[in-house]
């Protein structure tokens, strides 16, 4: 790595010291924080301004975010893949300039995670998709804060949504998914993913510098 590495940013948290030995983007071995009160950016060192969007790097990006969230139920405003800042000054300028929107986002998603749910019809299965979709949606709304539609990109997709779920409701959400999968196992399968950082419930656009 070069003598003056750049900063690869994963997300924003409330101001605190955070230092962890974990595999990051670009083969980084340590994740830590850069501070500008009342915020901190979760970062790792990187020697390029344009990291490759490989499967390994994408997994590392998500894994760092997931670990930061699960370690102490920390609230994290996620950044999209590939956010690299030349130096500490430019990163702190972003923290300073975006302080208002970052604070609002942290407040809006405080104590939550994102969970993904897909209902996939078995091949040649015949059933009332709208009835199933409405029933499942109503049941999951009762154990979630908010939902986002991700679109039906396949003929077999019955439902494809992300849910914002409180930490203390995650077990209830898991139970609801298990019940749905059992009740409908003769005509569809359930793909359940997460927890993820709440990408689908944050609307912040930042350019790397």
Automatic annotation (TrEMBL):
Signal peptide start and end residues: none
Compartment list: Gas vesicle
Record-level GO BP terms: gas vesicle organization
KW tRNA processing (keyword) present: no
Protein keywords: Gas vesicle
Pfam families tied to this protein: GvpL_GvpF
Positions of transmembrane segments: none
Entry's Gene Ontology cellular component terms: gas vesicle
Membership in a protein family: Belongs to the gas vesicle GvpF/GvpL family.
Name of the protein described by the UniProt record: GvpL/GvpF family gas vesicle protein
Organism: Halocatena pleomorpha
């Amino acid at each position: 790595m070069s003598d003056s590495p750049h900063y690869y940013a994963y997300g924003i948290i409330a101001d605190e010291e955070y230092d962890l030995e974990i595999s990051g983007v670009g083969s980084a071995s340590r994740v830590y924080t850069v501070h500008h009160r009342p915020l901190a950016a979760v970062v790792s060192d990187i020697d390029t301004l344009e990291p490759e969007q490989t499967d390994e790097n994408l997994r590392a990006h998500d894994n760092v975010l997931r670990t930061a969230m699960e370690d102490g139920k920390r609230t994290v405003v996620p950044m999209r893949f590939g956010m690299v800042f030349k130096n500490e000054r430019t990163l702190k300028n972003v923290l300073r300039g975006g302080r208002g929107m970052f604070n609002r986002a942290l407040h809006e998603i405080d104590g939550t995670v994102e969970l993904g749910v897909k209902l996939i019809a078995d091949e040649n299965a015949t059933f009332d998709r709208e009835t199933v979709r409405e029933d499942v949606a109503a049941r999951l709304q009762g154990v979630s804060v908010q939902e986002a539609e991700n679109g039906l990109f396949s003929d077999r997709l019955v439902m494809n949504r992300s849910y914002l779920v409180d930490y203390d409701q995650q077990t209830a959400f898991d139970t609801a998914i298990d019940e749905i999968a059992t009740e409908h196992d003769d005509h569809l399968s359930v793909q359940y993913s997460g927890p993820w950082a709440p990408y689908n419930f944050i609307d912040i656009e930042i350019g790397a510098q």
